[in-house]
């Protein structure tokens, strides 16, 4: 078993890991995309057409998330980061709950709802105020309209972020795929990149996803329950 000590462990998370914290997911029964249209709220065109509407939705999401706390699944990933020599967390989430739990090194594929970027001068800065005093918020430097620093439909991921995630995936020996419907690219391809390079895939999701048939092991349970248990049972196999 000690042979596995230095093997890189990677976790890829999606909205489902924050579901038990009270953050709505995007798909499924109570998913945001059932009641809201991504085309009206999460595209550059939508923002150019109606920044007030897009900002009203993001302000509501910031308020919702601000009232949520990390759950045992988030905290388990913090323990992995603190305990393992070779662990990387990649997330599609913009909610900041991994960092709130204590994760220090997080590859945020889709950005952060707590960071704003100026559509004029491209200034980027953290802003955790809830509520924001003005909507849409304005840039302190140039007066331009600020937008959330998140990836919208039709936009590309940042090159350096995607490259880092791809590299980590290709070097993984085990990838935990936690709480993602695995339908949004390029994130959905990362587990397959890892698997092609020889990694084992372990899925934590109460529902079946397109990733399920590729997974070597599947836990059909809420991540807050299954992930701490899996870690308690296997941590002895990893380099501490
Ligand atoms: P989705 O909402 O598409 O999927 C959430 C997944 O979490 C589903 O497969 C659920 O079955 C699962 N789930 C629900 N509760 C869970 C729990 N307690 N434990 C574990 N899993 C649970 O969210 P993502 O896959 O993250 O992109 O969505 C990917 C991207 O689509 C998001 O980052 C966002 C969205 O549009 C952008 O905004 C660019």
Rounded mean pLDDT score: 95
User: Poorly predicted ranges (pLDDT <50, ≥5 residues)?
Assistant: 1-5
| Run of helices and strands | EHHHHHEHEEEEHEHEEH
Distance linking N and C termini: 13 Å
Strand coverage percent? 15-25%
Name the CATH superfamily assignment of the largest domain.
TPP-binding domain
The rounded Rg comes to 18 Å
Bound molecules: 2'-O-acetyl adenosine-5-diphosphoribose
Number of strands: 9
Q: Per CATH, what is the topology of the largest domain? A: Rossmann fold
Fraction in helix: 25-40%
CATH architecture classification of the largest domain: 3-Layer(aba) Sandwich
How many helices? The count is 9
Q: Which CATH C-level class of the largest domain is it?
A: Alpha Beta
How many discrete domains?
A: 2
Which of globular, elongated, flat, extended, rod-shaped describes the shape? globular
Largest sheet: 6 strands, parallel
Trace the largest sheet across and list its strands.
3-2-1-7-8-9
Please characterize this protein's 3D structure:
With 240 residues, this protein is an alpha/beta fold. It has two domains: 1-22 and 70-110 and 157-240, TPP-binding domain (Rossmann fold); 24-67 and 112-150, SIR2/SIRT2 'Small Domain', CATH 3.30.1600. Helices cover 33% and strands 18% of the residues. It is built from nine helices and nine strands. The strands form two sheets. It has a six-stranded parallel beta sheet, sandwiched between helices. It has a three-stranded antiparallel beta sheet with strand order 5-4-6, with helices on one face. Helix 5 runs parallel beside helix 9 (223-234) and helix 7 (159-171) packs parallel to helix 8 (190-196). The longest helix has 16 residues, at 51-66. It is globular, with a radius of gyration of 18 Å. The relative contact order is 0.19. 2'-O-acetyl adenosine-5-diphosphoribose binds at residues 14-16, 19-20, 25-28, 31, 42, 92, 110, 151, 179-181, 184, 204-207, 209, 222-223. Residues 14-16, 19-20, 25-28, 31, 42, 92, 110, 151, 179-181, 184, 204-207, 209, 222-223 line the site of 2'-O-acetyl adenosine-5-diphosphoribose.
